[in-house]
Fold each of these.
Amino acid sequence: MPRSVNAVASRNRRRKLLKAVKGQFGRRKNVWTVAKNAWDKGQQFAYRDRKTKKGNFRALWIARINAGVRQYGMSYSQFMGALNKAGININRKALADLALNNPDAFKAIVEKVK
């Protein structure tokens, strides 16, 4: 009896992966083994950097808040300590947005915690 291989499925699987790496440089885009390794590594980076992105945004928000409160003679850490002591629960994302886009509202918050 002849050997049964599902050539249709394996060809489709390879075609799908080669389509995913289309646009990469050199043999990464057209040689199956190289493309498979490149795709695997890319997926590892994507998984890792989805986590890293959250920390990058937090650092950006902190930098914006710090720049905003420096105008009023405070540092970021002093401001956050005073904010917690005053019992104002507002997250860093919202504070950074206020500091950037609505300076009057941000100033009111700073004055309240001073």
Amino acid sequence: MKLQESGEMYLETILILSQKKGTVRSVDISEYMNYSKPSVSRAMGLLRNGGYILVDKNGYITLTEDGQYVANRTYERHKLLSSFFMKLGVDEEIAAEDACRIEHCISDETFSALKRYISEIKE
């Protein structure tokens, strides 16, 4: 199953919430993303069917290996891009919004090159 931007955003949110709270339920995702509960419920069903998440009998959500991979990749991109934009002088909120848009469409090749470049200029 090819994930779309929204699926990546949900997985990234599950990762962030699990790091902050330890456990994640649909209601937590709904509150964090400011999405309706039915929208989140539908997305969780799609992610579960796609093999990206597991939902236990109590409604707790965990990432599968595939889900963890996508979430980590997306979150790494978000953090690096927003940090880079802020270093360029972009306002934190705008940097985060722009990073959120770019993180889903930037190629692996371009992201790797950007990562190398940032690493080189830090040294």
Amino acid sequence: MPRATNKAASHRRRKRVMKEAKGYYGARSKVYTMAKNAVEKGLTHAYKDRKLKKRTYRSLWIARINAAARLNDTTYSKLMDALKKKNIEINRKTLADLAYNNIEAFNELVKFANS
């Protein structure tokens, strides 16, 4: 009995990998085995960096809030503590946006929290 290789499925699988490797440099976009390795590594980094992106944005927000808070003679940690004590539930993303785009509103919020 001859060996069955299922050429249609193999071809489809290879074609998918080569399509994902389009735009890669040199043999990484031309040779299947190299393309497969490059695509696999790329997908691994993509998964990892989706998690890292969240951390990066949070640290950016904190830096912006801290910079704007220091213009109002307070610090990030004191501001967050004051907001918590006043039961003002506002997330860091919104606070950072206020600090970056609408400094007057941020200053009012800081005054209210510290009063």
